[in-house]
Write a structure and sequence with these properties.
The structure holds 2 protein chains of 2 kinds. Chain A is an alpha/beta fold. Helices cover 37% and strands 21% of the residues of chain A. An 8-stranded mixed β-sheet of chain A has the order 10-9-8-11-12-15-13-14, sandwiched between helices. In chain A, a hairpin with a 2-residue loop joins strand 1 and strand 2. Chain A starts with 10 loop residues before the first strand and ends with a strand. Chain B is α/β, with parallel strands linked by helices. In chain B, the strands form 4 sheets. In chain B, strands 11-10-9-12-13-16-14-15 form an 8-stranded mixed β-sheet, with helices on both faces. In chain B, strands 2-1-8-7 form a 4-stranded antiparallel β-sheet, covered by helices on one side. Chain B is flat, with a radius of gyration of 27 Å. At the A-B interface, helix 4, helix 5, helix 6, helix 7 and helix 16 of A face strand 8, helix 1, helix 2, helix 3 and helix 7 of B. Bound molecules: S-adenosylmethionine (SAM). S-adenosylmethionine binds next to helix 3, strand 10 and helix 5 of chain B.
């Protein structure tokens, strides 16, 4: 195994059963909260990804704080607990809330005293009036439920696009404009994002998910470039950072403010922004820091500091010793302007504003014959734009699509679609630019 | 040769996509082709808007307009998406909505090594190649000799053969070959009995672990595959279904019928009993006939070797107790037990 497979990176994913959480690995604060539990991550550094750790309680009653211990064991409750009998059907089961003889307080004590989930569950079963009358299937389901409640293992995974997109969608779809996994995957293919070419992204907020997606498909040690345009003061980077891209890779994404970038492109040096920032360069730097802190803290519940901005700033400073005071955003604007002059091979827009003007301005940078994709969470703005573009002659193969996705429970004799599905996929308007 | 890097102009030998108001054609740009008698004649491509002299395409810029005898169209450089819509079908193929999810589920990035069986018409293969190039490689297999060979020729003429190895092989009977042992980041199966391919997939997956995905039209296949994946210690087994609908955008003008005047006696009589005005909308309609099913995608993670041996032990343990746990239930089920 290579070093790359060990936990030394910034971001990790913690998985407890089906629950996954994206975590910035912070050596100074190793505690993370999972539900009502606090897990201390000391000891995971340097372990291989996919390692499994057993949770053990480190403190006394009530305070649910856990330490981790590397293990190569994962036991199913079902294998540990001996079920002696089960019913044929549930005709005799009355759910009167009286079937459990243990009181809530007794169960709490049990949790503190026992060191195995199976001990707790076994006690619950022994003290249950109905368990042995339940059908085998119901018993299995009961154990599964209890396992979820008292599961004692976690696994540390390496973040990748699939996991990050899934975690962010589950956490709060609004923050990523409701871009579901299937829609995200299609944005990448319909725009023909790959290792070569200049790719243009306008994103008015997806916590960096779209930039992460495109940059991951552009790949490590390739020639592809990404110009990531956003309307805000600061680009949102959480997902981008969570991918743990190496700097060579990460630096091929240039994140720029849309006003500054276009002003720089059309009017040369961004004079407006320059004077503004020369006046209070410190203010802007300070804002950036606070901003990134706040953003990560919100999603991670942790005190974090993103230091990529300051690091790249330094490297930029050293290669331009003429005017060492110029901040990173200045060089980013110049860099984006150079790439835009080269013309772009794809255009992806995921905006909260009306897409028409944004598309009309940005499509000018796209080479003839190249694809574009516009995402919007409701259909109306795209319908309008569809009608507009249909009446123009510079777009081919225009398509407005929506997606549907559902998951299945697959079990012998019990296969069916999941009871809940997420119905909101948003809409995609895609096509090719022609001359 | 037009599936490799981006190009500005059409060269002889390129495959180009001709776009005519909502119809797409793939054309291989050659000056001449064989006619039915076996003689070489000038290549003239017939469309709904008349004839296109193919040799005139040489040197034309991609994205530009070309004249036909009874109209005009545009030429595009093929992408895997355009190719999936225009390729010659030798088998059933997988289309872009499923392909996109497959690429994502397999965690593919430039540099990944991926195994695919069967090659079929190469619809998915083109998209796999595009995602893993320039450092990665696709190993694709089909036990149908003609399909394997045709695919191979196609990859060569498309200029992408250095990223792909197409082989004629029965992968369920013979596996993916000695050369690929512990080499792959991901394995994808689109064949009738994918569960039989699971052990071979394990043999070829890297020690660091990797992803597995299979596409099956029938739920019975999915059940067997999931069972096999579970028995062999795969994690995070999920099955999903994806559909894409293309909406038809139309402008609708509809009559407005006013009824409120009936409440009062009208001064001017008689009142005309018909719609009084019109209003219009831009509307999207769902087509009456759409794909209702393509296939189920099952995806799973093979853990790294150091976790895998354990999984196997557990498997023996599991089978001895003759019952297996569900791994696809995320605990969110809230249905009445009696209904399942
Ligand atoms: C539905 S097609 C695959 C289509 C392909 N995914 C595409 O998008 O073009 C299935 C292919 O699997 C091949 N096949 C079936 N069983 C096989 C086996 N045991 N080994 C290799 N190929 C096999 C068939 O010959 C067929 O071409």
């Amino acid at each position: 195994m290579i070093e790359n497979d060990r936990i030394y990176v910034d971001y990790i994913v913690l998985q407890k059963q089906k629950y996954k959480k994206l975590i910035k690995f912070n050596k100074h604060n190793l505690c993370v909260n999972i539900g009502r539990d606090t897990i201390n991550l000391s000891g995971i550094e340097g372990c291989f990804f996919s390692s499994v750790f057993k949770l053990y309680s480190s403190s006394g009653k009530k305070n649910r704080e856990y330490q981790l211990e590397l293990t190569d064991e994962v036991v199913n409750l079902k294998d540990e607990i001996d079920i002696r009998s089960s019913g044929i059907d549930n005709r005799n089961i009355i759910d009167d809330g009286m079937s459990q003889k243990l009181t809530t307080a007794e169960i709490e004590d049990l949790k503190v005293d026992s060191n195995k989930a199976s001990d707790i569950v076994e006690s619950l079963i022994v003290n249950s009036n109905t368990f042995h009358n339940k059908t085998e299937y119901a018993q299995e389901k009961y154990l599964r439920k209890k396992e979820k409640k008292y599961f004692e293992y976690i696994q540390i995974l390496r973040p990748n696009l699939r996991i990050i997109a899934e975690v962010m969608y589950k956490l709060d779809p609004i923050k990523i404009q409701g871009i579901r996994l299937d829609t995200l995957s299609q944005i990448m293919t319909l725009a023909n994002i790959h290792s070569e070419g200049n790719h243009l992204l306008y994103d008015s907020g997806s916590n960096g998910l779209l930039a992460a997606a495109l940059l991951s498909a552009i790949g490590q040690n390739t020639n592809g470039k990404l110009v990531h345009i956003h309307p805000g003061n600061m680009s949102q980077k959480q997902a981008l950072l969570a991918m743990n891209f190496q700097s060579e890779h990460y630096n091929r994404c240039v994140s720029v403010n849309v006003y500054s970038a276009l002003r720089q492109y059309y009017q040369g040096n961004d004079t407006n922004a320059k004077s503004h920032h020369v006046q209070n360069p410190l203010k802007r730097r300070a804002e950036e820091k606070i901003d990134s802190k706040a953003k990560v803290a919100k999603t991670n519940n942790e005190d974090d500091n993103i230091n990529i901005t300051s690091e790249t700033l330094q490297t930029n400073d050293t290669n331009t010793n003429m005017e060492p005071k110029k901040p990173k955003w200045f060089f980013d604007n110049v860099a984006s302007s150079l790439i835009l002059k080269d013309k772009m091979d794809s255009l992806v827009i995921a905006c909260r504003e009306d897409p028409k003007n944004i598309f009309m301005e940005l499509v000018e940078f796209v080479k003839p014959g190249r694809p574009f994709v516009i995402y919007y969470c409701v259909v109306e703005p795209l319908q309008q734009l569809y009608s507009t573009l249909k009446s123009q002659s510079n777009i081919a193969a225009l398509k407005l699509t929506c997606n549907w996705m559902r998951h299945y429970q697959v079990l012998p004799e019990r296969t069916h679609p999941e009871v809940m599905m997420n119905g909101a996929s948003g809409f995609l308007l895609s096509g090719y630019v022609i001359s | 040769m037009s599936f490799g890097n981006y190009k500005d102009k059409i060269d002889e030998g390129d495959t180009v996509i001709l776009y005519l108001s909502n119809t797409l054609y793939a054309i291989e740009v050659q000056r001449e082709i064989k006619n039915k008698k076996g003689d070489m004649v000038e290549y003239v491509f017939q469309t709904q808007f008349g004839a296109l002299k193919v040799k005139n395409l040489i040197g034309v810029k991609y994205g530009s307009r070309v004249e036909l005898s009874k109209g005009w169209g545009h030429v595009l450089q093929p992408t895997p998406e355009l190719w999936s819509l225009t390729l010659p079908h030798r088998t059933q193929i997988i289309y872009t909505p499923d392909i996109s999810m497959i690429l994502l589920q397999l965690d593919l990035v430039p540099g990944s090594i991926v195994i695919e069986a069967g090659t079929g018409s190469g619809s998915l293969t083109h998209a796999l190649i595009r995602r893993i190039k320039p450092h990665g490689h696709v190993y694709t297999f089909d036990f149908h000799e003609f399909r394997a060979n045709t695919a191979k020729e196609e990859f060569e003429s498309h200029g992408i053969s250095k990223f792909v190895t197409a082989q004629h092989r029965d992968v369920l009977a013979d596996g993916f070959g000695e050369d690929l042992i512990a080499k792959a980041d991901a394995v994808f199966l689109d064949l009738p009995s994918p569960w039989l391919g699971v052990p071979h997939a394990i043999t070829c997956t890297k020690d660091q672990g990797g992803r597995f995905c299979s596409f099956s039209p029938c739920i019975e296949q999915v059940q067997k595959t999931c069972l096999a994946l579970q028995e062999h210690g795969f994690q995070d087994i999920t099955t999903m279904e994806i559909l894409q609908t293309e909406l038809k955008v139309t402008k609708r003008t509809v009559p407005v019928r006013d009824l409120s005047f009936l409440k009062h006696k009208s001064s001017e009589s008689p009142v005309e009993e018909k719609p009084s005005s019109e209003t219009s909308y831009v509307a999207s309609t769902w087509p009456a006939n759409v794909a209702g099913h393509t296939g189920y995608l099952t995806a799973a993670t093979l853990p790294p070797l150091f976790r895998r041996s354990k999984a196997k032990l557990q498997k023996q343990h599991d089978t001895s107790s003759e019952e297996r746990r569900d791994s696809s239930d995320d605990g969110k089920m809230v249905i009445d037990e009696s209904k399942c």
